[in-house]
Amino acid sequence: MKICRMVLCVLLCLSLLVACNQPTDKEAYYKIQKKLGELESYECIARVNVINDDEEITEYTYKQIFKKPDSYRLEVLYPDSIKGNLMVSNGKIAWVYSPSINHTYKIDFTQKQQNELLFIGYFMKNYITSKESEINSETNNKRQLIVISTDIPGGNQHFSKQKLWFDRKSLLPTQLQILDGQNKPVFNVYYEDFNYNPKLEDNIFHLNTQSQ
């Protein structure tokens, strides 16, 4: 009986120790906001699910690179039919390069804006300027998460709101979701191999446009 009580006491102490080591919501929010405030660049693998009106899902995988304030690079890794296609923007102009036909062309403003929604750097701009932002905590499959929600400016009913999830322990982003005006998801972006603040050269955000 004494042994059982001793074991229970040890387990209780261990549980309390673990709980004490867990940051409070306020501490976790502060750490994530500080991490984002220090974000100058990042690179990762982004698995993107595009959801149409019939709730059918089309999957893409990209190598995603971003450099502050607004340069980005998207290289298609999947599907194989467009593998190697490259989208780059220096913040003013965006291009697409298709290696299968060796052709480079500019993309229009609407498509450029849509691409930008997939990047955490642009999410941060919306979060900072929006009056309708909030931060909450969630648990998913026993994983402790922090989620930041913000409106997308412009009043576009197709792209109305964004939600960004972070792993509470590692402070790494795990998922970005774009929702329409009816609060239905239209994009789900899942981040893997996320690297904060890698050193990036400006030339990776430019393409030879002579073949437009």
UniProtKB/TrEMBL annotation:
It comes from the Bacteria. The keyword Lipoprotein applies. The keyword Lipoprotein applies. Pfam families: LolA (PF03548). Residues 1-19 form the signal peptide. Keywords: Lipoprotein, Signal. Coiled coil: none annotated. PROSITE patterns: PROKAR_LIPOPROTEIN. This is Outer membrane lipoprotein-sorting protein. It comes from Serpentinicella alkaliphila. The lineage of its organism: Bacteria, Bacillati, Bacillota, Clostridia, Peptostreptococcales.
